[in-house]
Design brief:
single chain; 168 residues; alpha+beta; SH3 type barrels; Translation Initiation Factor IF3; 2 domains; 6-stranded antiparallel beta sheet; 4-stranded mixed beta sheet; 2 helices
Protein backbone atom coordinates (compact mmCIF):
# COMPACT_ATOMS: atom_id res chain seq x y z
CA UNK A 1 0.00 0.00 0.00
CA UNK A 2 2.78 2.36 0.94
CA UNK A 3 4.57 1.64 -2.36
CA UNK A 4 1.43 2.59 -4.30
CA UNK A 5 1.23 5.95 -2.52
CA UNK A 6 4.92 6.58 -3.07
CA UNK A 7 4.58 5.67 -6.76
CA UNK A 8 1.52 7.90 -7.18
CA UNK A 9 3.27 10.78 -5.43
CA UNK A 10 6.41 10.48 -7.55
CA UNK A 11 4.36 10.12 -10.75
CA UNK A 12 2.29 13.23 -10.01
CA UNK A 13 5.43 15.21 -9.09
CA UNK A 14 7.11 14.20 -12.35
CA UNK A 15 3.98 14.98 -14.35
CA UNK A 16 3.72 18.39 -12.66
CA UNK A 17 7.32 19.19 -13.57
CA UNK A 18 6.63 18.28 -17.20
CA UNK A 19 3.64 20.63 -17.24
CA UNK A 20 5.61 23.40 -15.57
CA UNK A 21 8.49 23.00 -18.04
CA UNK A 22 6.35 24.42 -20.84
CA UNK A 23 6.17 28.01 -21.93
CA UNK A 24 2.76 29.64 -22.23
CA UNK A 25 1.89 31.96 -25.10
CA UNK A 26 -1.04 34.34 -24.50
CA UNK A 27 -2.68 35.31 -27.80
CA UNK A 28 -4.75 38.45 -28.35
CA UNK A 29 -7.69 36.34 -29.56
CA UNK A 30 -8.07 35.06 -25.99
CA UNK A 31 -6.34 31.69 -26.36
CA UNK A 32 -3.52 30.49 -24.12
CA UNK A 33 -1.25 27.94 -25.78
CA UNK A 34 1.27 25.65 -24.07
CA UNK A 35 4.38 25.62 -26.26
CA UNK A 36 8.16 25.63 -26.21
CA UNK A 37 9.42 29.00 -27.46
CA UNK A 38 12.32 28.59 -29.88
CA UNK A 39 13.00 32.26 -30.66
CA UNK A 40 11.42 35.69 -30.78
CA UNK A 41 12.54 37.66 -33.84
CA UNK A 42 11.70 41.12 -35.14
CA UNK A 43 8.32 40.19 -36.66
CA UNK A 44 7.61 36.61 -35.57
CA UNK A 45 7.68 34.12 -32.71
CA UNK A 46 8.92 30.59 -33.47
CA UNK A 47 7.73 27.75 -31.24
CA UNK A 48 6.92 24.07 -31.13
CA UNK A 49 4.11 22.16 -29.49
CA UNK A 50 4.88 19.78 -26.61
CA UNK A 51 6.26 16.42 -27.78
CA UNK A 52 6.67 17.72 -31.36
CA UNK A 53 9.76 18.84 -33.25
CA UNK A 54 8.05 20.76 -36.06
CA UNK A 55 8.73 24.48 -35.79
CA UNK A 56 5.68 26.76 -35.97
CA UNK A 57 5.67 30.52 -36.57
CA UNK A 58 3.21 33.24 -35.58
CA UNK A 59 3.33 36.99 -36.14
CA UNK A 60 4.18 39.08 -33.07
CA UNK A 61 1.01 41.16 -33.45
CA UNK A 62 -1.08 38.06 -32.63
CA UNK A 63 0.83 37.45 -29.36
CA UNK A 64 0.25 39.47 -26.20
CA UNK A 65 2.86 37.95 -23.93
CA UNK A 66 4.93 34.88 -23.30
CA UNK A 67 5.37 33.31 -19.89
CA UNK A 68 8.50 31.18 -19.93
CA UNK A 69 8.87 28.01 -17.87
CA UNK A 70 11.48 29.86 -15.79
CA UNK A 71 8.75 32.23 -14.60
CA UNK A 72 9.97 35.19 -16.67
CA UNK A 73 7.30 37.06 -18.66
CA UNK A 74 7.94 38.90 -21.91
CA UNK A 75 5.46 41.38 -23.35
CA UNK A 76 5.34 40.88 -27.10
CA UNK A 77 2.72 43.36 -28.34
CA UNK A 78 -0.12 45.54 -27.11
CA UNK A 79 -3.67 44.61 -28.06
CA UNK A 80 -5.24 47.05 -30.50
CA UNK A 81 -8.97 47.61 -29.94
CA UNK A 82 -11.00 48.92 -32.87
CA UNK A 83 -14.73 49.43 -32.31
CA UNK A 84 -15.72 50.95 -35.63
CA UNK A 85 -14.93 53.45 -38.36
CA UNK A 86 -14.23 56.23 -35.83
CA UNK A 87 -11.24 54.23 -34.53
CA UNK A 88 -9.44 54.37 -37.90
CA UNK A 89 -6.41 56.06 -36.31
CA UNK A 90 -5.80 52.93 -34.18
CA UNK A 91 -5.47 50.66 -37.24
CA UNK A 92 -1.83 49.72 -37.76
CA UNK A 93 -0.13 49.27 -41.10
CA UNK A 94 1.86 46.06 -41.50
CA UNK A 95 4.96 46.18 -43.68
CA UNK A 96 5.67 42.50 -44.26
CA UNK A 97 3.39 39.58 -45.02
CA UNK A 98 5.07 37.47 -42.33
CA UNK A 99 3.58 39.85 -39.72
CA UNK A 100 0.09 38.58 -40.65
CA UNK A 101 0.74 34.96 -39.59
CA UNK A 102 -1.78 34.08 -36.88
CA UNK A 103 -4.12 36.94 -37.80
CA UNK A 104 -7.49 36.45 -39.51
CA UNK A 105 -8.03 38.02 -42.94
CA UNK A 106 -11.18 40.15 -43.18
CA UNK A 107 -10.88 40.79 -46.90
CA UNK A 108 -9.68 43.55 -49.17
CA UNK A 109 -9.85 47.23 -48.35
CA UNK A 110 -9.16 50.20 -50.55
CA UNK A 111 -8.88 53.93 -50.69
CA UNK A 112 -8.47 56.44 -53.47
CA UNK A 113 -8.69 60.14 -54.09
CA UNK A 114 -10.33 61.77 -57.05
CA UNK A 115 -8.27 62.87 -60.00
CA UNK A 116 -8.14 65.87 -62.32
CA UNK A 117 -10.34 68.44 -60.56
CA UNK A 118 -8.87 67.83 -57.14
CA UNK A 119 -7.31 70.60 -55.09
CA UNK A 120 -5.01 68.16 -53.34
CA UNK A 121 -1.26 68.10 -53.62
CA UNK A 122 0.37 64.73 -54.22
CA UNK A 123 1.22 64.47 -50.52
CA UNK A 124 -2.29 65.30 -49.32
CA UNK A 125 -3.79 62.90 -51.89
CA UNK A 126 -1.58 60.14 -50.46
CA UNK A 127 -2.68 60.96 -46.90
CA UNK A 128 -6.35 61.05 -47.90
CA UNK A 129 -6.22 57.67 -49.67
CA UNK A 130 -4.40 56.20 -46.64
CA UNK A 131 -7.09 57.59 -44.34
CA UNK A 132 -9.78 56.02 -46.52
CA UNK A 133 -8.14 52.59 -46.46
CA UNK A 134 -7.73 52.77 -42.67
CA UNK A 135 -11.38 53.85 -42.25
CA UNK A 136 -12.48 50.96 -44.47
CA UNK A 137 -10.45 48.53 -42.33
CA UNK A 138 -11.77 49.99 -39.05
CA UNK A 139 -15.32 49.73 -40.38
CA UNK A 140 -14.71 45.98 -40.85
CA UNK A 141 -13.37 45.70 -37.28
CA UNK A 142 -9.77 45.15 -38.41
CA UNK A 143 -6.81 46.17 -36.31
CA UNK A 144 -4.25 45.83 -39.11
CA UNK A 145 -3.82 46.47 -42.83
CA UNK A 146 -1.19 45.03 -45.14
CA UNK A 147 -0.84 47.38 -48.12
CA UNK A 148 -0.64 45.27 -51.28
CA UNK A 149 -0.82 47.90 -54.01
CA UNK A 150 -0.10 51.62 -54.21
CA UNK A 151 -0.49 53.79 -57.27
CA UNK A 152 0.10 57.53 -57.19
CA UNK A 153 -0.25 59.86 -60.16
CA UNK A 154 1.52 63.14 -59.54
CA UNK A 155 0.03 64.81 -62.62
CA UNK A 156 -3.59 64.27 -61.59
CA UNK A 157 -2.92 64.20 -57.84
CA UNK A 158 -4.71 60.87 -57.64
CA UNK A 159 -3.69 58.20 -55.16
CA UNK A 160 -5.00 54.63 -55.05
CA UNK A 161 -4.21 52.07 -52.38
CA UNK A 162 -5.33 48.46 -51.91
CA UNK A 163 -4.69 46.19 -49.01
CA UNK A 164 -5.92 43.31 -46.89
CA UNK A 165 -7.51 43.91 -43.49
CA UNK A 166 -6.59 41.62 -40.59
CA UNK A 167 -7.96 40.98 -37.12
CA UNK A 168 -7.13 38.71 -34.16
Amino acid sequence: MRKKHLFALSFSATFSLVLLAQDKMHLHNGKDVDVKIIKVSEFTVSYSYPNETAEQTIGKYAVGKIKYSSGREEKVSDKVIVSGKDDWEKVQILEKEEETVGLKSLGEVGGKTSGMMSFHTAASADKKSMKKILEDAADKGAQFVLITKEKDNQFTNQSKKRGVAYSY
